[in-house]
UniProtKB/TrEMBL annotation:
Residues 1-31 form the signal peptide. It comes from the Bacteria. Keywords: Lipoprotein, Signal. Gene3D superfamilies: 2.30.42.10, 3.40.50.11550. Residues 298-377 form the PDZ domain. This is ChaN family lipoprotein. CDD domains: ChanN-like (cd14727). It comes from Halomonas salifodinae. Coiled coil: none annotated. InterPro entries: Cofac_haem-bd_dom (IPR007314), PDZ (IPR001478), PDZ_6 (IPR041489), PDZ_sf (IPR036034).
Length: 391
C-alpha cells in the first residue's frame, strides 16, 4: 500500500494531529497502469473494474449497519457525491443516521437543534463552534445538513476534541477516566500496512528533528481519531438502521482506520465507498474500497482554493506553537521554524489555532499579512505574502 507523499498545504491544524489531515486530503494513490476504466463517469464499479448496477448496489448497502463515505474535505464534487448517495440510501432505508467527522461530541446539542428546526445557519455554526472545530468552508457541507434537516434524519457528531486526542495519545488511555473520554475504549492495534503508511506520511512531512516518540504520538493520535469515530458509529447502529459516516478518505482506505476499528467493535456488516476520477485514466489500487463512484471532469466547478500558510500549529499559553511546516509553503519561505510561537496575525492576538485559520482564510490572493512571532525569547515581525491568482 502506498500513500501520496505530496503534501497538501493545510491552512493550519492542531499539532501532529494535522498530519492525520494529510491522510484525508492527499489524493488517492494509484496503481501501476494507465488504462482508462471501462465504466463511464456516473457509474459505480468495484476496484477490480467490474461495473456495479446502482439499484442492486444501493439495496445491498442499505442492508448494512454502517456505510462509510470518504471525501477529500475541500472537494465540492466529493460532497455532491455524498449528498446524492445519501439520498439514494435514504430511499432504500428510511431509518438513517448521518455521522460527521467534522464535529466532536460536544457539538451534538447543536446538531439536534438544527434537525429540529430551532436554529438558522448562522446560529447553528455558532452553536456548534464549526469554525473552531473544522477548518473547512461550511458551505461545502450545508447542502447535506439541509437534506438531513428536510427529512428529519438524525445527525451524529463522531469526533472528539483535539485536546482529548492529545491527552489520550500523550498520557495514555489509563490516565484519562472513562467518563472523560466518552467511554471510548482503547483502539485495536493497527494493521501493519496501516502503520507503515502512517509512518511514510510522517517521515515525508517531518522536519528532520522529529523523534521516534513524535512518530509514536502521531500514530497514537490517528488511532484515537479512528476509534472515536468507529465507537460513535457502532453505538448508533442497530438492526434495521443504517448509519452513514462522512469522513476523510484516509480513515477508510483499504479497510484500515475506522473499518478496522469497527470490526474490532463487532460491526462486520459495513461497507466503504469512495469517489474516483475517471478523467485521470488511472486504475485504482485493488481493495481500495468496496465500491467506487466514477466522477467526470469536475474541476471547473471546484471553488478557488483558500490561502494557505502551510504549517501545523498547536495551542500555547500566549499564542499558537508551530509544530510542522510544509515544504515549499508560505511558512517555509518566511523562515518559520518548529517551536516558534505566533503571537499575533494581521494585528490580532491569537488564542487558539482556529483564530489563525480564520484570519488566513480571509486573505485575498496577493495580499500581505503581518505575523508577530517569538523565538528563543526574542519577538519580531514577519510579513507573509500569499501568492496572487496568476501565481
Amino acid at each position: 500500500m502506498s500513500l501520496s507523499r505530496r503534501l497538501i498545504p493545510a491552512l493550519v491544524a492542531p499539532g501532529l494531529l494535522a498530519l492525520s489531515l494529510c491522510l484525508a486530503l492527499a489524493p488517492l494513490a494509484t496503481a501501476n497502469g494507465n488504462a482508462c476504466p471501462d465504466a463511464a463517469p456516473g457509474q459505480w464499479q468495484a476496484t477490480d473494474g467490474t461495473p456495479l448496477g446502482t439499484p442492486a448496489l444501493l439495496s445491498e448497502l442499505a442492508a448494512q449497519r454502517v456505510v462509510l463515505l470518504g471525501e477529500q474535505h475541500d472537494r465540492l464534487a466529493h460532497h455532491r457525491w455524498q449528498l446524492h448517495t445519501l439520498a439514494g440510501l435514504h430511499a432504500h432505508q428510511p431509518d438513517l443516521v448521518i455521522g460527521l467527522e467534522m464535529l466532536p461530541r460536544e457539538a451534538q446539542p447543536a446538531l439536534d437543534a438544527w434537525i429540529a428546526g430551532e436554529l438558522d445557519e448562522a446560529a447553528f455554526l455558532e452553536a456548534s463552534d464549526w469554525h473552531r472545530h473544522w477548518g473547512f468552508d461550511p458551505g461545502l457541507y450545508l447542502p447535506i445538513l439541509h437534506f438531513a434537516r428536510m427529512h428529519r434524519i438524525p445527525l451524529l457528531a463522531l469526533n472528539v476534541t483535539p485536546a482529548l486526542r492529545q491527552r489520550l495519545a500523550g498520557e495514555g488511555w489509563d490516565a484519562v477516566p472513562s467518563a472523560e473520554r466518552h467511554a471510548i475504549t482503547p483502539p485495536a492495534a493497527p494493521p501493519a500496512a496501516y502503520r507503515e503508511a502512517l509512518t511514510e506520511v510522517f517521515r515525508a512531512h517531518s522536519t528532520g528533528a522529529d523523534s521516534e516518540a513524535s512518530l509514536e504520538s502521531f500514530i497514537a493520535a490517528q488511532l484515537v481519531w479512528d476509534r472515536a469515530m468507529a465507537t460513535a458509529l457502532a453505538e448508533a447502529s442497530g438492526p434495521g438502521r443504517l448509519v452513514v459516516g462522512l469522513m476523510g478518505q484516509g480513515h477508510l482506505r483499504h479497510g484500515h482506520g475506522v473499518p478496522h476499528q469497527l470490526y474490532d467493535l463487532g460491526i462486520a456488516a459495513q461497507r466503504r465507498l469512495l469517489p474516483w476520477s475517471a478523467a485521470d485514466c488511472e486504475a485504482p489500487p485493488r481493495d481500495l474500497a468496496d465500491a467506487l463512484f466514477l466522477l467526470g471532469d469536475e474541476a471547473p466547478f471546484e471553488p478557488t482554493a483558500p490561502p494557505r500558510l502551510g504549517l501545523w500549529v498547536d495551542g500555547a499559553d500566549d499564542g499558537v506553537r508551530v509544530q510542522g511546516i510544509g515544504r515549499d509553503s508560505v511558512a517555509e519561505g518566511l523562515g518559520l521554524e518548529v517551536g516558534d510561537i505566533i503571537l499575533r496575525a494581521a494585528g490580532q492576538a491569537l488564542r487558539r489555532p482556529s483564530d489563525l485559520t480564520a484570519l488566513v482564510s480571509r486573505q485575498p490572493p496577493g495580499s500581505l499579512m503581518p505575523l508577530e512571532i517569538r523565538r528563543d525569547g526574542s519577538v519580531w515581525e514577519l510579513l507573509a505574502r500569499f501568492p496572487s491568482a496568476s501565481e
